Amino acid sequence: MTAAPAQGHVEHSMVIVGGGLAGATAAASLRADGFAGAITIVTEEAELPYQRPPLSKGFLAGKEGEEALYPYPAQWYEDHSVELVTADPATGVDPAGHTVTLASGRTLHYAKLLLATGASPRVIPLPGLELDGVHYFRTKADSEGLKALLSAGGHKLVLIGSGWIGMEIAATARELGNEVTLLGLEDVPLSAAIGTELGKVFMDRHLEAGVQFRLPASAASINGADGGSAGKVASVTTSTGETIPADLVVVAVGVVPNTALAQAAGLAISNGIEVNAHLQTSAPDIFAAGDVANALHPATGAHARSEHWANAIAGGKVAARSMLGMNAVLSDIPYFYTDQFDLGMEYSGYGALAKDAELVVRGSLESREFIAFWLREGKVVAGMNVNVWDVQDSIKALIHSGRTVDTRRLADPAVALEAI
Ligand SMILES: Cc1cc2nc3c(=O)[nH]c(=O)nc-3n(C[C@H](O)[C@H](O)[C@H](O)COP(=O)(O)OP(=O)(O)OC[C@H]3O[C@@H](n4cnc5c(N)ncnc54)[C@H](O)[C@@H]3O)c2cc1C
Fold first, then answer.
1. Residue 54 Cα, ligand 1 centroid: separation in angstroms?
2. The pTM is what?
């Protein structure tokens, strides 16, 4: 998996730490933008760089194979002289000396460094986390492990956390014939992200498929067969005192950005690695992109960290250009998507601005084919299409335009979005 190292020209070396989508995209962008020097991707996983969305959907369901995970096949790295160092995490960065140290003891010199270290599942203090049958869910190995269990059906799965990942795993597990119960802190799942009314659309679809919810409820303990915290998991006790039988538990209560390396190197940290709109950290030759980067967004004037696929791609490209001195700016309107049962959804916009904003729906929530818009002072700040396709460009154009819209026309499916 390792192409010929080309560390000879130290001053031309680009080092990327993190083999996720942001890291892989940055390497491809460096080459696409004409960079001919050495590129090294360092990653702690023993994998080709891969993307994560299929892990909780098609890959977990067994409908998609490994090829759905890799943005670039192994041959691509060979062909483009990108050295891949796998299963060898970076353990130290020296911004003054321009070096990265790896767990193996190897030292890499860089002209520019990209930190694309992503995020890790949040660990909550909970009795019973070490029981056999308790899982976290972030990596290909996590998905493969759970797939091996769920694919036969008949398991009793309790999901702690009813966010996007929890809801996607619930849908896939249920489709595979397992009993699924979700615990979440909100009255309606996903309501913190998209509001109660729209969260209910997803919840109702899950209920229809037989997924059970305990809301609002957290887990008080995960219990073994003898009620203790050794051996195989047997149940989960909720904060409301209910004990739910379980032979599998997935803890999906959000992620925390992997900032340890950056922090130890003395970089500015605030909810991630703090970067400007060029994705440059407080050290001029070090950049950060993807889930780990808390980036200044020119449209809002605020820093925000995005944990989504499109941000990893856009950030990887901008970081690469900034590393090449091309003065790139991350100004894309944030975008993400989800698939749960037969609900396909895309969302574009500024989540923080959409909170408590005016909601306008085009189509009907009951039909599960609609576009929801969030407006502030008559201007669209976010839009979400559910089972309606090829409208993202129009939604983004409306947001981008910043113009005041007629909400009656916006809600009317007979009026073309381009004519609003
Ligand atoms: C199950 C799942 C489903 C998702 N589904 C969707 C979806 O439907 N839509 C959507 O928009 N987004 C989705 N996301 C989010 C999306 O996948 C992430 O935003 C994206 O993976 C972020 O990419 P990244 O490159 O920043 O980080 P990551 O993909 O986390 O990659 C970071 C890599 O860096 C490595 N690393 C960390 N520290 C070091 C170190 N010190 N040295 C070397 N390597 C290191 C990590 O091991 C990891 O391999 C999903 C995420 C998950 C987990």
1. 12
2. 0.95
